[in-house]
């Protein structure tokens, strides 16, 4: 005969089973939750790493023929210090910082400028934008280094990470010294029609730029040699057409047609707004403004700042239809190229 279990054991076993069932049911879900939590932490770590990653610029130093690696904001400060007088208004310096940062960001996004050694993004010359490091600036500024660098760093820091975009992409933020009262359409100097680089009035330059008007005298023989022409007696050429920016578009000299840009570059003139007169064996040439004329006029920006305009208003005037965005919005794709 089989011995029966005591009746009090049955309720205890039942209670144990009831306690174990929730743990068994929740076990798979607990493992899943743990895995999801770990994935979330990994994602957060990656996002934080990406957020803290600093975009660097590889600058080809023309004199030493070496490549200098710099953090983006350090590079921008070196460009602003080299391209715009530190004595300019703070809002003008901010506008310059924005243009410099955007210019190099666009080049990096394009894989760097063409014709440079491997790993270099940009040169330190006027071929792109001038850059000098602190050692070079100390030599240049001497006793004025501290206040000038501090002022520029403040302007750069105030715009940290900001770039100019058009249709969500960094623009070609070109700039130049002094306008002739207007900026130039990109298509009238570079032949490419760029929607945000259109001719706008820049009336501030004449009153604030010391080199607004400039004169140079060239011997007739040198004039003829550089243009590959022979002048007839009393003939100095005829301007055939001017651009919307009031610069020379085409000119006819001795039966040969030149663009204003060809004349400027061949004769080494300050701008394409020029006229000349012959005085004996020489040609007297007068120019207005200084530079190619496309994009932001630096002296115009300073004139706007003197009137109380903000750097946002300055860049909006010279670059039509652009927006100020954060470089972080395009940082992942830029870092992926490094």
TrEMBL record:
**Source species, domain of life:** Bacteria
- Give the record's keywords alphabetically: Membrane, Transmembrane, Transmembrane helix
Could you tell me the Gene Ontology terms of the biological process aspect for this record?
Answer: sporulation resulting in formation of a cellular spore
Question: GO cellular component annotations, sorted alphabetically?
Answer: outer membrane-bounded periplasmic space
Name residues in a coiled coil: none
List, alphabetically, the NCBIfam families matched. Answer: SpoIID_LytB, spore_II_D
Know the name of this protein? Sporulation stage II protein D amidase enhancer LytB N-terminal domain-containing protein
Sequence ranges assigned to domain Sporulation stage II protein D amidase enhancer LytB N-terminal in this UniProt record:
63-166
């Amino acid at each position: 005969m089989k011995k029966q279990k005591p009746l009090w054991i049955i309720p205890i076993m039942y209670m144990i089973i009831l306690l174990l069932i929730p743990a068994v049911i929740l076990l798979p879900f607990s493992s899943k939750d743990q895995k999801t939590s770990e994935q979330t932490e990994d994602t957060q770590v990656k996002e934080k790493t990406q957020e803290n990653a600093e975009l660097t610029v590889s600058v080809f130093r023309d004199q030493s023929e070496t490549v200098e690696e710099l953090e983006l904001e350090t590079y921008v400060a070196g460009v602003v210090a080299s391209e715009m007088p530190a004595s300019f208004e703070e809002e003008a310096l901010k506008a310059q910082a924005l243009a410099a940062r955007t210019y190099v960001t666009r080049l990096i996004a394009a894989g760097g400028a063409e014709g440079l050694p491997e790993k270099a993004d940009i040169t330190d010359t006027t071929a792109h934008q001038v850059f000098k490091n602190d050692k070079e600036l100390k030599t240049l500024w001497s006793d004025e280094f501290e206040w000038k660098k501090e002022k520029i760093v403040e302007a750069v820091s105030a715009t940290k990470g900001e770039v100019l975009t058009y249709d969500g992409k960094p623009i070609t933020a070109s700039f130049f010294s002094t306008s002739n009262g207007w900026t130039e359409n990109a298509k009238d100097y570079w032949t490419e029609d760029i929607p945000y680089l259109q001719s706008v009035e820049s009336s501030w330059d004449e009153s604030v730029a010391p080199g607004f008007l400039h004169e140079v005298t060239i011997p007739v023989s040198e004039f003829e040699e550089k243009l590959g022409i022979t002048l007839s007696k009393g003939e100095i050429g005829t301007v055939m057409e001017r651009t919307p920016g009031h610069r020379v578009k085409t000119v006819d000299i001795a039966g040969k047609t030149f663009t204003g840009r060809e004349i400027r570059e061949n004769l080494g003139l300050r701008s394409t707004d020029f006229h000349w007169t012959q005085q004996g064996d020489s040609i007297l040439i007068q120019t207005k403004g200084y530079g190619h004329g496309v994009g932001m006029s630096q002296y115009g920006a300073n004139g706007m700042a003197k009137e109380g305009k903000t750097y946002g208003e300055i860049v909006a005037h010279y670059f039509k239809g652009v927006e100020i965005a954060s470089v972080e919005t395009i940082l992942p794709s830029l870092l992926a190229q490094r």
